[in-house]
Amino acid sequence: MKKAFLAAAVLLAVACATYTSRMELSRELYYDGRYDDARANLDKLVKNASGKNRYLLLLERGKVNLAAGAYDSAIVDLQEAERRFLEIEATVSIAEVFGEMLVNPTMGEYQSEPHEKIMISSYLLIAYWLKGDREGAFVERNRLVERLKQYTEGLSEKDRPALDVPFAHYLAALMYEIEGREDDARIEYDALEHLAPGAAPQAVNPRTRELIVFTEVDRAPVLVSTEIRGYLQKDGGSLVGFFNLPGNEAPQMFMLPGLDNLNLDKSGVLFTFAFPQCVKQPRMVHHCKLVVDGMEAGEMLPLDNLEGTICAAYEQSLGATLLKAAFRTYIKTVAQTKLSKKDDAGGVAFDVLGKMMSAFDRADTRAWQTLPAEIRVFRMECNPGSSEVFVRYYDDRGDVLGVSNGVVVSPGRSNKSIVFLI
To answer: How many CA atoms lie within 13 A of 377 on its CB side?
Structure first.
């Protein structure tokens, strides 16, 4: 018995280490601009990762490599992760589904969200362009357009503004414009205008020499593990659970029928389950301005509210998350109530099983955590010569928070100079 309870205690300690907690150091180093240190820490995480988390960690490292200007490394990481996510997209592992339902939702391999797949292609396009591989960027543009069709064409008019990715439409349109495919560029710019009014250029002209600067602002929401407490009671032949979710005043309820033989105390029983709460991160930047050769050129325009997209995707998956939690609550209740008889050795074993399942229960906090809260853009006509550009960030009082890394833009093969600043 001591060994059984010790095992439960060990499992509880393991359960406390969520993906968000493991990523904390890498995340802080990344947002602090310490890219080499962030990559070194992510190297360790990737090396020690199980198969179910490895490809998500490759996304994180790929994003850090992109920010650090290590474009070849970024491409390798992002492509490896993308290949795996596409491989498992249409497959279902019965063992993993059983584990997710019975034990905890982190038992299965991570499957990326649609907006994450679109952002992978977007970042790959940026990486190819910035490393000077024009043809590679055009190929990635074609794949990006396919991703947009695959993951957004089925969205309703109500859901599209929240779940579509304007940044991806802008990149696709810009690549079409550079290639001289003006009609295709207009189609993507029109789609962009519906999603982010004012962000698309007023005219499409591949021959105009322009500077286009993108910058990422603040941190995307993260998922954190929160313990939810609730109350179970019998209602005829059904088991009814009541609980409250963070941010929701109204109590939530689930009902599991067909439990006539489950003996609960008349007063019912209390239960707990681990829940992934979506937590928005503090927004520090109120506005930002592009600086060209030491002079502020103008205000950068809002392009993509990724914070809103992430929260909308989370809300959309909330029903499935709660269904799995309700099923695990039922299993634990059966193990500790119906099958638990303290004077019976088998009953004690089931009681320990229930405690071990409680120890195993943890929230799935996996998500791409190096995404930004927002992407902004600035576009202007420019001279043929070289210019130094960076972004200056301001808080809501107009005080300077800091600046991005600076980049020297030189004339290239295209009339469009693209800069990506973090």
So the answer is: 24
What is the rounded radius of gyration, in angstroms, for the C-alpha atoms of the chain? 25
Q: Print burial letters for 289-308: b (CB count within 10 Å at least 16), e (below 16).
A: bbbbeeeebeebebbbbbbb
Largest CA distance in the chain: 87
For each of the domains in the chain, give its residue range(s) and CATH number, in order of start: 2-223+279-313+365-421 (1.25.40.10), 224-278+314-360 (no CATH)
The C-alpha angle 371, 376, 380, rounded to 5 degrees, equals 145
Query: What would the pLDDT profile of 107-121 be if each residue is shown by its tens digit?
Result: 788 999 999 999 999
CA count, 13 A, side-chain hemisphere, 149: 8
Residue of 285, 162, 169 whose CA lies nearest to 219: 285
Six token digits for residue 191? 């789609």
Distance between CA atoms of residues 419 and 178, nearest Å? 15
Give pLDDT tens digits for 305-335.
Answer: 999 999 999 999 988 888 888 777 777 766 6
In this structure, which amino acid lies at residue 238? S
Question: Among 31-40, 47-56, 244-253, where is mean pLDDT lowest?
Answer: 244-253
Q: Whole-prediction pTM value?
A: 0.88
Which value, to the nearest 10 degrees, does the dihedral of the CA atoms of residues 289, 290, 295, 298 take? -60
